[in-house]
Amino acid sequence: MATPPARATTTFVIGGDLTVHRLGFGAMRVTGAGVWGQPKDPVEAKLLLRRVISLGVDLIDTADSYGPEVSEQLIAEALHPYPADLVIATKGGFTRPGPGRWHPDGRPSHLKQACEGSLRRLRLERIDLYQLHTVDDRVPFEESVGALAELQSAGKIRHVGLSNVSAAQLKQARSIVPIVSVQNLYNLSDRSSEGVIAACERDGLGFIPWYPLAAGSLLNRRGTLARIAARHQATPSQVALAWLLQHSPAILPIPGTSSIPHLEENVAALEVTLDADDLRSLDTF
Q1: Catalytic positions, written as ranges
Q2: pLDDT beyond 80 at 164
Q3: 232 and 239 in contact (C-beta within 8 Å)?
Q4: Residue 174, Cβ neighbours under 10 Å: how many?
Q5: What CATH architecture applies to the domain 12-216+250-258?
């Protein structure tokens, strides 16, 4: 029988001063269909957010574009005044002309306005982690990043993060302002950000994979994932999250859901430890 690898580290220090548990919560799905408008049951959404905290999750990721504005508003309504150890990460850089529609806007004026709106909705004087949500090809990248540097200098944000960037863009941004995290698409079936993860791990940055479960599409696949899940008496989603946690100590998964049972299932992935054979099988998934 294969010897199990050491358990994944349970915490990560963002920016040298914010210690969080490595499994966070993505708050995109607490909005309505198409990430638009209010959820079907706002009371249930707030109960979900309170359950996030009661389960020991202390990193919540959101954005002004989720709703738009709805996710941030619900977080404040459900959780403010916030627990002292809670880190709320939010993002700016998209506008939303309608359900399912996302338009990049990396103009410094927009990013500064977006940050002010997030501060107001979240009822914060300073945002712990503010992330450029996407690169806007119409705006010089250094101008977008420079706007976040100015917000940091003004005391509006504590740490700067990026989302949807390449390794080259990460390097460029770091020449302008300290970067503490990157949030890119990454999961078992899409590993195009492997080079960015390597850079994050090397330099002590957090890597926050969005779409960590490929919106459930992984869970319907038979074969390797299902076999490993059965052997661990776990669900396929728990195995997929456990793989992320063991793949790199820099990875901070933020699975999102609108369901309390699914939330509890995701958090229970922390109890799954994959052995060397499991990891080899999943590395070639």
Answers
A1: 66
A2: yes
A3: yes
A4: 16
A5: Alpha-Beta Barrel (3.20)
